[in-house]
Amino acid sequence: MSKNIVIIGGGIVGLSAAYFLQKVGHQVTVIDKSDITSGASFVNAGYITPSHIIPMASPGKISQGLRWMFNSSSPFYMKPRWDADFFKWSWYFYKSSTKQKVDIAIPIIKDINILSRNLFEEIKTSGDLGNFQLERKGLLMLYKTQKMYEHEMEVAQKASFIGLEVKELSKQQLKLKEPHIEIDAAGAIHYECDGHTTPTEFMPKMLQYLKSVGVAIHTNEEVLDVKQSKSKITKVLTDKGSYAPDEVILAAGSWSGIFSKKLGVKLPLQAGKGYRINVQRKTDIQMPAVLMESSMAVTPMQGFTRFAGTMEFSGINTKIRKERVAAIAAGAKEFYPDLTITAAEMDMAKTGMRPVSPDGLPYIGKSKNLRNLTFATGHAMMGWSLGPATGKLVAEIIGNKKLSMAIDAFNPDRKFG
Asked: 322: number of CA atoms within 13 Å, CB side?
């Protein structure tokens, strides 16, 4: 049965949900307070990452954050501030950062990433969006030190054990993978299972397709509140009007935690700010890579090379800290000594807010408070990678169809600690 569905949020998750919902005949409206040309879905590294099996909430992460707290250029920065929600989230994060919980999360993260990778390929094969970059070159984890090598080899062994394709590359083998640019690294771990895209190409094409098939896209419109009756949302109220949906999907990224309070739902969520620099001249970089000691990502995209990274917990804001941008440029120079990111390129840096749950797993599923509300948020640094999988699962949830995978671990009402 066709339903009238309102999606709050027009990022990769919201648009992916619209894509799969309209495919099965639902009437879909997407509402976003921006013009859907910026934010986390546009400034990310574009990775499709089955290899990222370790959630951000892992042993030692909080202590690392505390050590870096007063260094605003550090890769993992937690700005000191008095914020009750942040304190509570930090405690949940700490309680989630155990080896036992990480081991439970590993196969779950792998499965949803594989599902999403297959769906990216399905979208491309369908021809709905026309041609767009979707490559399967894998991901290089570049390291300089023995410490980082040993750290990543532990991850690689876990990845190999659960069936992911991974190889160790010597410095000489790395040169064969990247023959045209000098790389100052001792070697690399090559996750052959990974892929990459160009977000600034994919997002406009997805928007264009959705509009062409009748999905209503309402930009520059802010959802202010909802009306409820008998454990159900009856109206969605915006600064431009109101909607009477059968179902509501909350896919508002880092704003989802704030808005959920209006719904009477406590959704632990913090905004993790990331930065990117685009270099639009030839760099000769051919392979996506994570520069381990620099804690940053490098992606060859359509027409430019992107350098991205950092995780900054400083609340929801779009302020660009120049010291963090400079740290990305310096980190790139450490690994690519012949490449210098210019001041002009740094001045064009952009930022985006990632929604981070305390345990590093997304919130996907129905609310126990409101029976016609479905959550689709909290993906942290894997939002781009998991967009299509989340959209597909949301369509199956709303249609009461068999799920593509178990989603118990993503329960928005789960307890932490």
From this structure: 4
Q: How many CB atoms lie within 10 A of CB 231?
A: 12
CA atoms within 13 A on the CB side of 206: 30
Facing residues of 216 across strands? 29
Contact 378, 361 (CB under 8 A): yes
Please say whether the beta carbons of 77 and 295 come within 8 A: no
* Total-model pTM: 0.95
Please write the tens of the pLDDT for every residue from 226-247: 999 999 999 999 999 999 999 9
Q: Domain 4-410: which CATH class?
A: alpha beta
Burial class of 124 by CB neighbour count within 10 A (0 to 12, 13 to 18, 19+): middle
Say if residue 68's pLDDT is above 60: no
Angle at which helices 383-398 and 99-126 cross, to 10°: 80
Q: Which two tokens stand for residue 238?
A: 């915006």
Question: Backbone dihedral region of 324: left (phi > 0), alpha (psi from -120 to 50 degrees) or beta?
Answer: alpha
Domain locations in the chain? 4-410
pLDDT band at 315 (very low <50, low <70, confident <90, very high): confident
Q: What is the pLDDT, as a whole number, of residue 311?
A: 86
Spatial CB neighbours of 93, under 8 Å, sequence gap ≥ 6: 57, 61, 62, 358, 359
Distance, CA of 22 to CA of 1 (rounded, Å): 12
Tell me the CA distances in angstroms from 88 to 85, 235, 240, 246, 354, one per residue in order.
5, 31, 34, 33, 18
Instruction: Return the residue matching tokens 């594989």.
Output: 114
